[in-house]
Backbone:
């Protein structure tokens, strides 16, 4: 608010205004600085973004194993590039690496004679087991060309070591270690924290194994959840041991013994003696080793980003295979993951393109909104009704709502370590009655009918037995719809789906055994199947969704949310999600 006066201000009155003016000037300066710098970067980036990289002789693909692995690479906006240079706060850009880029680069490196080999540089790439297997399989295929792979790192985490184990030589820093210790899975439980502030979660669910809601009314794992979690981490650990044992000429028993020794606490020499690594060398001295492998001191290194910019031959075919990436939590109208209304728009765009003859869905999702999942399922059926075959390739997760949107496809591929199934739903409603009493808030009002104020009453007072029964009926109705969709899609009885459902999480390998997955394989297998179902001899690939708007990227960079605030926000969001959820629980596997 601004006041206009004819009175001359005193010096004492001027000081606050000067401070405010100084603060406002600083804010304006920084705003203009950031925006102008970002716009300049955008203009320059636009000028040079189309430039491609030409491969040169004696090149090594330097695959930097660091950052956060995501399904689909996004072009780095100039805003992100600029803000990534800011050395303070939370403004630094997150280093996302696309799985699609890595796999494409490895294929290119295999087939181009200018690429001599691959250097796996580092071991800090954040990835789940299924994605790690996809990269590892691609590296094994690369080696079939007769080319070499070397790996080096300060230290190796288990999943990164699982990938690096395919290398012809594994190098370790003298002060480093291999974190080989076995797997554990842990969850955080919020029940006692909520009780302290007077909040009680009212849970309605279907499925003995549907454990996503347990952190809100239990303080430890249920036996059902303990059973299913141990089963799938045992399966992942078995995959790690089997693969590493074969690559390193060790036995699984030896690897278990090493895990019990907690190898990350052992010296680099002990890791060498155990056979986990081949060479102890400082990272700064890798040049000497690369000279040996390339046979020259004039070799060139090409990063993942540069390799992705190398021009690939384009197909001249008119027929297209669409590849749609569906990654993240499923929401109705907003969010960073799979937004129902946006996905449906994409389906409509695909349906309008007469040249698209098949659709591959790359699903990497723990689930989310049951209603959004149903809407996406329906959109997929409309695509199929237009004689466009749909093939699903499951990533790290395709569970609960992630399986809901997958079950209606013509064919489903999963990695052996994909987490899938979790066929079950739940509803959560917080009751703040005790909190209301603590702070002295009273609720009163009038209604025309018996349940007119049901939604507010069950939050402020808690559900009575009749309301509990009504809510349970609604959730069971949703579960019946979910299982019927799965039964129709998999061509089995609904009773069978319910027998393997109950919210139970399965690994992809087990999913194939019980029939919720057709075949074990990766996205390349899914594309090949789509080509087969469409009866195509030649085709080109088109990818969806489009690159993220750079303005959206700019806004994300100014997120200063603390870890504590994120935890409270997680609880708030969980409590305010749609009534019925089809989602797998959050579990940290280490």
Residues:
């Amino acid at each position: 608010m601004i006041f206009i006066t004819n009175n001359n201000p005193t010096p004492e009155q001027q000081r606050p205004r000067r401070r405010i003016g100084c603060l406002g000037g600083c804010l304006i300066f920084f705003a203009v600085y950031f925006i102008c710098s970002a716009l300049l970067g955008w203009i320059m980036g636009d000028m040079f973004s189309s430039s491609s990289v030409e491969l040169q002789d004696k090149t090594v693909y330097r695959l930097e194993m660091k950052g956060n692995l995501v399904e689909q690479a996004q072009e780095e906006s100039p805003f992100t590039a600029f803000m990534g240079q800011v050395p303070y706060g939370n403004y630094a850009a997150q280093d996302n690496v696309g799985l699609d880029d890595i796999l494409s680069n490895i294929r290119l490196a295999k087939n181009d004679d200018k690429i001599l080999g691959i250097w796996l540089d580092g071991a800090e790439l954040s990835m789940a087991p299924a994605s790690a297997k996809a990269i590892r399989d691609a590296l094994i295929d690369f080696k079939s060309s007769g080319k070499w792979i070397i790996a080096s790192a300060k230290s190796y985490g288990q999943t990164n070591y699982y990938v690096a184990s395919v290398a012809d030589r594994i190098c370790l820093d003298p002060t480093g270690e291999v974190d080989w210790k076995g797997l554990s899975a842990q969850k955080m439980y919020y029940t006692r924290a909520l009780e302290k502030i007077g909040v009680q979660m009212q849970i309605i669910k279907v499925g003995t194994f549907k454990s996503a809601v347990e952190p809100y009314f239990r303080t430890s794992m249920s036996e059902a959840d303990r059973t299913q979690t141990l089963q799938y981490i045992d399966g992942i650990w078995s995959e790690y041991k089997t693969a590493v044992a074969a690559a390193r000429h060790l036995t699984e028993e030896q690897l278990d013994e090493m895990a019990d020794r907690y190898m990350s606490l052992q010296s680099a020499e002990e890791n060498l003696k155990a056979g986990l690594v081949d060479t102890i060398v400082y990272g700064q001295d890798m040049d000497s080793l690369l000279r040996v492998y390339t046979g020259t001191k004039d070799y060139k290194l090409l990063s993942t980003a540069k390799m992705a910019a190398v021009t690939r031959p384009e197909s001249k075919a008119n027929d297209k295979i669409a590849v749609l990436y569906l990654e993240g939590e499923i929401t109705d109208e907003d969010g960073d993951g799979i937004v129902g209304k946006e996905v449906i728009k994409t389906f409509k765009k695909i349906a309008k393109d007469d040249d698209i003859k098949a659709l591959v869905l790359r699903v990497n999702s723990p689930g989310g909104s049951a209603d959004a999942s149903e809407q996406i399922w329906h959109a997929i059926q409309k695509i199929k009704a237009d004689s466009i075959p749909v093939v699903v390739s499951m990533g790290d997760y395709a569970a609960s709502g992630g399986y809901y949107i997958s079950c209606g496809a013509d064919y489903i591929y999963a990695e052996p370590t994909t987490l899938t199934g979790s066929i079950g739903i739940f509803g959560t409603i917080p009751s703040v009655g005790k909190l209301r009493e603590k702070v002295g808030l009273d609720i009163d009002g009038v209604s025309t009918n018996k349940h007119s104020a049901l939604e507010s009453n069950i939050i402020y007072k808690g559900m009575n037995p009749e309301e509990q029964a009504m809510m349970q009926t609604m959730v069971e109705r949703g579960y019946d719809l979910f299982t019927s969709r799965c039964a129709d899609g998999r061509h089995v009885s609904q009773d069978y789906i319910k027998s393997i459902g109950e919210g139970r999480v399965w690994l992809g390998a087990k999913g194939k055994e019980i029939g919720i997955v057709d075949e074990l394989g990766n996205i390349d297998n899914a594309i090949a199947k789509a080509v087969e179902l469409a009866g195509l001899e030649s085709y080109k690939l088109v990818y969806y969704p489009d690159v993220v708007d750079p303005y959206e990227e700019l806004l994300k960079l100014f997120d200063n949310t603390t870890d504590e605030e994120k935890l409270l926000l997680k609880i708030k969001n969980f409590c305010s999600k749609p009534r019925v959820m089809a989602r797998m629980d959050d579990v940290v596997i280490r």
About this structure: Confidence is low (pLDDT under 50) at residues 1-20, 42-50, 78-93. The first helix runs from residue 11 to 48. The radius of gyration is 27 Å.
